[in-house]
Amino acid sequence: MTEAITLWFENLFVGFPPWIAVFVLSMIPVIELKGAIPIGVAAGMPLWEAFSFAVIGSTLPAFLIILLIRPVLKWMKTTKYFRKFAHWLERRSQKKSKNIQKYKLWGLFLFVAIPLPTTGVWMGSLIAALMDIRLRSAVPIIFLGNLVAGGLILLLSHGIFG
Predict the structure, then answer these.
(1) CA distance 1 to 125
(2) Range of the domain at 131
(3) What are phi and psi of 90, to 5 degrees?
């Protein structure tokens, strides 16, 4: 299965160096660095290179998410087609933020650092924005959490934990 997914992504980025594929894929929600690092390693990239491009690429969306999510959600709530999705997204992030609120920045760090489904930079940035954590506080914490998550993914993808 992993080979089929890797092959599909390789075909998607035919003609591009693997680092571009890792960089772009790591910006996509759900994939982020959790998927981009193993894909980069499977494509033959050195570990440090796959790690570096995935961490940088997956951290970049944090700036836009934190700055723009409130105005975008406000607009979405005024439209017929996006109203339900905007409310669902807010409810989901509020549900995820309950554990984070108790510890604020430390909770945000742990949320991003633990590489599980629905955790990571995208959801962490959304939660930070909705909790009114300032950009200059949130982004460094999200970056550090992302570094840890990337390190764990490297360890997991190389069988060190299993």
Answers:
(1) 30
(2) 61-146
(3) -65, -45
91 and 142, same domain (yes or no)? yes
Specify whether 90 is located in the same domain as 125.
yes
Same domain, 49 and 109: no
Among the listed residues 11, 145, 121, the one whose alpha carbon sits nearest the alpha carbon of residue 66: 121
Is residue 120 in some structural domain?
yes
CB 45 within 8 A of CB 18: yes
> Are residues 54 and 101 located together in one domain of the fold?
no
Q: How far apart are CA 22 and CA 50, in angstroms?
A: 7
pLDDT tens-place string over residues 60-104: 999 999 999 999 999 999 999 999 999 998 888 888 777 777 788
Residues 108, 100 contacting (CB under 8 angstroms): yes
Question: Who contacts 10 (Cβ-Cβ below 8 Å, separation ≥6)?
Answer: 21, 43
Check: CB of residue 138 under 8 Å from CB of residue 146: no
Same domain, 108 and 84: yes
The structure tokens listed for 108 are: 């945000």
d(CA 15, CA 13): 6
